[in-house]
Write a structure and sequence with these properties.
Blueprint (H helix, E strand, L loop, with lengths): L4 E3 L1 H10 L3 E4 L3 H6 L1 E2 L3 E2 L5 H7 L6 E4 L5 H11 L5 E4 L2 H8 L4 E2 L1
Parallel strand pairs: 1-6, 2-4, 2-5, 5-6
Antiparallel strand pairs: 3-7
Length: 106
Amino acid sequence: MTQFKRIAAADAHTLLDAGNTQVIDIRDPGSYAQGHIRQALYVDNSNVQQFVENADPEKPLIVCCYHGNSSQGAAQYFAEQGFKDVYSLDGGYEMWKMAYPQWCEQ
């Protein structure tokens, strides 16, 4: 059973703009270094357990990948770890950087 929700860039922007939302980026380190959503944390297999232990499962969590495909599996994983409101970003970072370049940093 799917426990996460898919979220459009516009809705994700609204959540992030309101504050109190966590965002993680699961792309490769080089892609993350070239650009990512402002405030996004880089999470991969080497630090995922640390993130799960230290993040607030009560705060909304947006998972970002390249195009919104890999993030769905990751979002499901975080939902299974007890995160309450987990979202997979539709279109991923590629969509985000076109819609909200001012919300990107390197």
